[in-house]
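Weekly structure sync, notes
Attendees: PL (lead), two postdocs, one rotation student
Agenda item 3: pending single-chain targets
PL asked that the sequence for the first pending target be pasted directly into the notes so everyone works from the same version. It is reproduced below exactly as submitted, 238 residues in total.
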Amino acid sequence: MAIDKKRIPEHVAIIMDGNGRWAKLHGRERLFGHANGEKSVRTVMETAVEIGVKWLTLYTFSTENWNRPKEEVDGLMNLLIENLVKELPTLKKNDVRLTAIGERSRLPEKARELLANCERETANMKRTTMVLALNYSSRWEIAEMVRRVARRVERGELKSEEISEETVASLLETAGMPDPDLLIRTSGEKRLSNFMLWQLSYTEMIFTDTLWPDFGRDEFLKCIEEYQGRERRFGNVK
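Predicted structure, written out during the meeting:
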């Protein structure tokens, strides 16, 4: 594939969709699909590192996912715990820093502990930062940002007329991160599902019919190649 190494997106965000349908096609329970989806996470992460993507954000668990059957939610939390342990050596080998966005307090204590440990262990990794969106909701994030702004105004630290786009961005979960250049959603769905609504304002979007467990290196590189064929104008005329 004709990938231009000089035009690699700095930040790629992915809505990983289709695990349940993939499992159904194979005559298995939904958790079988989630477990196999982890292979795609590793493959995409290693490919992102290889081609020079600096930020990779994965929509891992939304606040709405708590509404799924308890057995599936418990299984997802156990998979998270298992993979935070299993994948730490892979992260280190690939020089990948791990961090997360979202409301962590509702996650199981063990998951919170292991996540914090992975963040400490990879804090000095420099090649790529992988961000897990865990118990994440963009509407929650924006409401939380408004509360932070209100508290600063109440304390006299900020005047209403001083609130700017930069103020908002600095108080979101993604403070310090560049906005995504490219969003990929798998499984054929064409919606944002409450994901990074502020940050995706000028993001290029690619929707693929491939189910997440089947999304591998070649599919990821095809998305990068398609992104490179687009002209990003940000509202201007070229």
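Discussion points:
- Residues 145 and 171 are 5 Å apart (CA to CA).
- The first strand starts at residue 11 and ends at 15.
Action: rotation student to compare against the earlier draft before next sync.
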